[in-house]
Amino acid sequence: MVFLKDLTSDSKKDYLLIEKIQRIAREAGKAILSYYGQPIPVEKKADDSPLTKADLAAHHVIVDGLQALDDSIPVLSEEASEVSFEEREKWNDFWVVDPMDGTKEFIKQTGEFTVNIALIRHGTPVLGVVYVPAKDLYYWAEQGQGAFKQQGEEAAFSIKVRSPDKKRLGIVASRDHAGPMVQELLKRFPGAETQSMGSSLKFCLIAEGKADIYLRDVPTMEWDTAAAQCVVEQAGGVVQDIEGNRLGYNKPVLRNPSIITLGEASLTWR
Q1: How many domains does the chain have?
Q2: What's the pTM value of the predicted model, to 2 decimals?
Q3: What is the CATH number for 200?
Q4: Containing domain of residue 248, as a range?
Q5: Do residues 145 and 253 both lie within one domain?
Q6: Measured between alpha carbons, how far is residue 145 from residues 125, 224, 236 in Å?
Q7: Sorting pLDDT into bands at 50, 70 and 90, what band is 25?
């Protein structure tokens, strides 16, 4: 468990920042839940993904909150992502935000939607908060400090990836976005336990040692992965492209390649 009195002065500073980001995420979650379970209009974005008033409300809460903390750090949000690379390439530090990851889950009322906030430094996620509003549940991590899970106001506890049992692997797949490579992976490991879940919670299953592999072979964007990648990496796992390169940020094109998340980097999954 994490107690502020037990931390070094530098770690206290980081922990207090985490607490501030958690509060912003919770306020965004409250904005989302004010629409939850109600019939609200659903628009379609250019990529045909859904957009609701809940997404936009959370976006404004997060951007206002982060700028109040330090308005010198730019914010890249899914709902305000029209920033040219010529401008972005000047950024050393910036926030990348998905105000509501899993809008389809919000619409279907499964509860499996998250608020994702990450701090990127030189292309690497160094702080990440994943908040599940419907459960008042946090996953969070900060570079060099480990990864944690926290229920509401309870004390946080550290989480770690597990050592895989190759005879009974745990494979995570998306309900709505399982592509052909995922189908081939499942065929290769017919004895695997499979779980299907929405939003960035799939990464968190790896981070907390409840699964071993999450292959995503259909497109994601940087805001879909940044916060959860920090959690996975600080829990001991890896998030890579399928060639084995660590997933990076502030790319000229914000779309990610196909990615594989592993609890154990050496796990042979191909």
Answers
A1: 2
A2: 0.90
A3: 3.40.190.80
A4: 170-262
A5: no
A6: 13, 22, 11
A7: very high
